[in-house]
Amino acid sequence: MAPARPESPNDPKSAPDPAAEERLVIALRSRDEDAYEQLVRAHGGRMLAVARRLLGDSEDAPDAVQEAFVSAFRSIDSFEGQARLSTWLHRIVVNAALMKLRTRRRKPEQPIDDLLPTFEADGHHREPGKPWQPAARLEQREVHRLVRENIAKLPDAYRTVLVLRDIEELDTAEVAALLEVNAGVVKTRLHRARQALRTLLDPHLRADRE
Amino acid sequence: MEDLRCREFTDFLLAYLDGELDPRARAAFEEHLQACPPCRDYLDSYRRTVELVGTAWSPCGPDDAIPEDAPEELVHAVLEARRRA
């Protein structure tokens, strides 16, 4: 059986009682100290997981969550109540993590072009792909670790789009707005990020390595 | 679109998977797919990559379920930052 995806803010199984959520929002708007703590305890763990997917296990991730909550407390009056609180907070922490990414010092990155497929002059694959091992034969925990390690190797501009689209499940238009680029750029980066990750995983997962 | 080669096939993968190819381009894509085993393998591994990304942070069992509770130090740091703000 395929493993579950990380819990999405839109996942109905995590739906809170709407009346309880409404009470919490009213309490937050009246600057109730207990309500602040309740919000952090209810959503902090998941928000930290989102920040870590974008920023890695650095100190930047809890810092981004902290900044996201402070921003959420300040703007709680603008929460319209049509979206769920978790969805609203998810967008805020994604924004805070992206701000951190923009300001932190760049680490040296492998150019994405080195990880894209190459072709002969006649348009055929230079290195034809080989089948991968069937999923059932792979040790799941090991594969998850491998995938996370290799996602971390992608250049920031591509890794960010991959995480936002394929893990956080934002749509192309949302990602384009967050990154202030057009939809075509998001699609190109997503495709290249997936291709580059496929290249990085290929030596580990192809059937002929056994 | 006739005589689609591996290079174009690879370029069109995302649009194909997103259902964004027009019927003529889709037919050419699928014709190439039928005739080219390396591109079939490439498509399969590309799809597998997308699936693996989607589940890379999922728990594999009860022993490594991702804790939903906010770490205590995070709770304190956030509440402290709010008081200072």
Structural class of chain B: mainly alpha
Show the largest interface.
A-B, 58 and 45 residues
Largest sheet data of chain A: none
Q: What is the CA-CA span between the terminal residues of chain B?
A: 59 Å
Given the C-alpha coordinates, what overall shape of chain A results?
elongated
CATH superfamily of the largest domain in chain A: RNA polymerase sigma factor, region 2, helix turn helix motif
List the helices and strands and how they pair.
The complex is a heterodimer of chains A (210) and B (85).
Chain A: H1 18-29, H2 33-55, H3 60-74, H4 85-103, H5 140-151, H6 156-167, H7 172-179, H8 183-205
Chain B: H1 6-17, H2 23-35, H3 37-55, H4 72-84
Helix pairs in contact in B: 1-2
Task: Walk me through what this model shows.
The complex is a heterodimer of chains A (210) and B (85). Chain A folds into 2 domains: 12-103, RNA polymerase sigma factor, region 2, helix turn helix motif (Rna Polymerase Sigma Factor, Chain: A, Orthogonal Bundle), CATH 1.10.1740; 112-125 and 134-209, Orthogonal Bundle (Arc Repressor Mutant, subunit A). The two termini of chain A are 23 Å apart. Chain A has helices spanning 18-29, 33-55, 60-74, 85-103, 140-151, 156-167, 172-179, 183-205. In chain A, helix 2 packs across helix 4 (85-103), helix 3 crosses helix 4 (85-103) and helix 6 crosses helix 8 (183-205). The radius of gyration of chain A is 20 Å and the shape is elongated. Chain A has 210 residues and is mostly helical. By secondary structure, chain B is mostly helical. Chain B has one domain (1-61). Chain B is 67% helix and 0% strand. The longest helix of chain B has 19 residues, at 37-55. In chain B, 21% of the residues are buried. The mean pLDDT of chain B is 88. Classes of the chains: A mainly alpha (210), B mainly alpha (85). At the A-B interface, helix 2, helix 3, helix 5, helix 6 and helix 8 of A face helix 1, helix 3 and helix 4 of B.
